[in-house]
Specification:
Elements: H1 4-8, E1 18-26, E2 28-31, E3 46-51, E4 57-62, E5 67-72, E6 77-82, E7 86-91, E8 109-114, E9 120-124, E10 129-133, E11 140-144, E12 146-147, E13 150-151, E14 158-160, E15 166-170, E16 190-194, E17 200-204, E18 210-215, E19 221-226, E20 233-239, E21 245-253, H2 255-259, E22 269-271, E23 277-281, E24 284-288, E25 294-299, E26 306-309, E27 315-320, E28 323-328
Antiparallel strand pairs: 1-3, 2-25, 3-28, 4-5, 5-6, 6-7, 8-9, 9-10, 10-11, 12-13, 14-15, 15-16, 16-17, 18-19, 19-20, 20-21, 22-23, 23-24, 24-25, 26-27, 27-28
């Protein structure tokens, strides 16, 4: 198996993070529609906020505390970035709390979300679980670590519904040997739902590389990114009133950008309040209308693993290979 990280980018050798003394401008915005000018100003630039990570992932803005959290899963560190203070380790180890066993490649947390109580909900690749973390005490609670008595592979990304259901993906990226790992107990790479009462349901086990997840503002569409070099696309699941899939369709095809040799694969997704989808993929962050029209791509020059909106939705933070970057939004 070709490791996803090898496909996405060459990893930096040392997991040392530092706030740029003078923010460096990188990359640019490819504008495919004038409609993008209502989302990103033509004069907007991308700035590096911090760099030196092995693989930056899973950013989430914590509005109640006015800071950003993001991960370096291979280094098993969760970082906190705050304006004027830069990025500093917040939890180390972030995921697996014990010695890292042979065969585990990513021991740290990955995808993040904040629940209605202000707790951090995380896909813990190393512990192979969905966990809840109290940001005041750092107390960890395992919400789910098994499906039908078998341990998950390496939970990767997640999103929360208004009902409290956690949708999450469970690909094999945390294993050094991927699908062939002797640590593997579940044969499929699944899309799951975890209800508030602890029930875990497999929603789809047919995809080879399920990854990023996000819900539409009305909660009736679940977007799923496929980090599959043979099927680089975003799928859209129609959900019923109970949040269960009743159909799926192709939402955004990234084969063209993949064929151009642009860095990255479909990975993290976020959805703006107006329904626009910000999906990372070949070339950077693809900005797509709710009907699937690509408006443009925000490119850092390196693969972008994930993104999130900052305070008041006026900024887009991006974890891009070995760096954390940001661009202003309108």
């Amino acid at each position: 198996m070709i490791a996803r990280r090898t496909l996405l980018a060459s990893l930096a050798a040392m997991p040392v993070a530092a706030m740029a003394a003078n923010p460096t401008t990188v990359g640019g915005v490819t504008r495919l529609s004038p409609a993008l000018d209502r989302i990103i100003a033509p004069s907007a630039s991308i700035e590096i906020l911090a760099q030196g990570y092995r693989w930056a992932e899973g950013p989430i803005w914590v509005g109640q505390r006015d800071y950003l959290l993001f991960n370096d899963p291979p280094a098993n560190i969760l970082y906190r970035w705050r304006a004027g203070q830069g990025a500093k380790p917040f939890l180390s180890p972030s995921g697996l709390q014990t010695a890292i066993p042979p065969g585990v490649r990513e021991a740290g947390l990955n995808g993040l979300a904040i629940d209605t109580a202000g707790h951090l909900i995380a896909a813990d690749s190393g512990t192979r679980a969905i966990v809840r973390i109290d940001l005041d005490t750092t107390k960890r609670t395992i919400l789910a670590d098994r499906f039908q008595s078998k341990r998950f592979n390496s939970p990767n990304d997640l999103c929360l519904s208004p009902s409290g259901t956690i949708y999450f993906t469970d690909p094999p990226y945390g294993f050094a040997d991927g699908d062939a790992s002797p640590l593997r107990e579940i044969g499929h790479n699944g899309l799951y739902a975890l209800t508030p009462d602890g029930d875990v349901t497999l929603l789809d086990g047919s995809h080879r590389r399920p990854n990023g997840l996000a819900l539409s503002p009305d909660g009736r569409t679940l977007y799923l990114a496929l980090s599959d070099e043979t099927q680089p696309e975003v799928r859209a699941y129609t959900l019923d009133a109970e949040g269960r899939p009743i159909g799926q369709r192709l939402f955004h095809d990234m084969r063209q950008q993949r064929a151009q040799g642009l860095p990255g694969l479909p990975d993290g997704i976020k959805v703006a309040p107006d329904g626009h989808v910000f999906a990372t993929g070949p070339g950077g962050v693809h900005i797509v209308t709710p009907d699937g029209t690509l408006l443009g791509i925000v490119s850092t020059g390196k693969a972008v693993a994930n993104c999130c909106f900052g305070a008041n939705g006026k900024s887009l933070f991006m974890t891009s290979s070995d760096r954390l970057a940001v661009i202003a939004l309108l």
